[in-house]
Known about the structure:
By secondary structure, this protein is of the alpha/beta class. The chain has 13 helices and 20 strands. The strands form 3 sheets. Strands 3, 13, 14, 15, 16, 17, 18, 19 and 20 form a 9-stranded mixed sheet that branches. It has an 8-stranded parallel beta barrel with strand order 4-5-6-7-8-10-11-12, surrounded by 4 helices. Helix 2 packs parallel to helix 10, helix 5 packs across helix 6 and helix 9 runs parallel beside helix 10. The chain starts with 5 loop residues before the first strand and ends in a 6-residue tail after the last helix. The structure holds ligand LLP. Ligand LLP binds next to helix 11 and helix 12.
Amino acid sequence: xxxxxxxxxxxxxxxxxxxxxxxxxxxxxxxxxxxxxxxxxxxxxxxxxxxxxxxxxxxxxxxxxxxxxxxxxxxxxxxxxxxxxxxxxxxxxxxxxxxxxxxxxxxxxxxxxxxxxxxxxxxxxxxxxxxxxxxxxxxxxxxxxxxxxxxxxxxxxxxxxxxxxxxxxxxxxxxxxxxxxxxxxxxxxxxxxxxxxxxxxxxxxxxxxxxxxxxxxxxxxxxxxxxxxxxxxxxxxxxxxxxxxxxxxxxxxxxxxxxxxxxxxxxxxxxxxxxxxxxxxxxxxxxxxxxxxxxxxxxxxxxxxxxxxxxxxxxxxxxxxxxxxxxxxxxxxxxxxxxxxxxxxxxxxxxxxxxxxxxxxxxxxxxxxxxxxxxxxxxxxxxxxxxxxxxxxxxxxxxxxxxxxxxxxxxxxxxxxxxxxxxx
Length: 424
Ligand code: LLP
């Protein structure tokens, strides 16, 4: 229909009626297009690569099926993500298990299912893993997560991870002084494939990656000299940024990869060492722009000479990012596309919380209660971070593809909300 927002060939006003709002919608075409573009530019920049999808961004069994069919592996950070990956049919060899405090049960679970690689975060985990792998008489591939001791620039403090003062990974000096490396190299139950670092999320320039790599390269040189050890794998983590508003330029991935990979190739050439396999594990870049959220507009409240609040039927329970990170989103009125944008509104969520504002000051056509709001780029860390605050049931997730829609995740019912409660 004219003036309606269409996503993957689907008029979103139709699916809003069919599945009700709030509604998460993922586009199959956008997901697949982004995965293929990523593969293309990454492999053009370097010839020995592997891409893992950071499943924390958006994970359902259907999503596992999509990333598997596109040839990606998975990065998981919990037993729950691992379970979902296995249920979705991901080959365990293609699963990398992260986490800064994996429980003994989670490690057991991973070994039992022959997870390909465990990204070890700390000494406690290392000693646990040694015991567990020895008890099973197996040899487990591992990467060590390193903290390069750098602060990624231009992103929110809560999603920066690579600085020295961090809960993630080994400090490099710790590795050298604690004799961690020889302890691993001597151990018949562990196979040290290489190193991992992740410096933060929502990054827009190659410099942070390059600086972190250079710090790690110093360690690699020392390890080569001292133990004759060379990593076969380097995992650069994820973090590739996406624009959430229409002012930010999208990341030039081609330029970014060329820049980073050149430095890596040159450095390994300089020490006459074989170039390692380079792994990346993006989440947001793949899933973010593939998702939208639909809301129905409800109460409209104009406070004279101040602002007009328009409330939606969702909010921080389905998108906690504005409250948590001051994240900004772009939106349109899905049933009034193309109409002149003449009014500034503040989009309020419906949680009992003043901080539950989805968007401050967005320019829209004149709205009425009952209009349909589309919020863009909500495919990553929205459904994944959804919660039941105020006992709002979690919305369903619908996949749209070539003009058709299908449920990926059923919405919760009130019955679901009480299904684990026990009367006293
Ligand atoms: N690898 C590791 C080790 C990570 O810690 C993360 C994200 C990723 C990969 C994927 O990062 P991405 O490519 O998606 O930026 N909840 C926050 C984001 C937290 C990201 C944590 N780690 C948000 O909503 O912005």
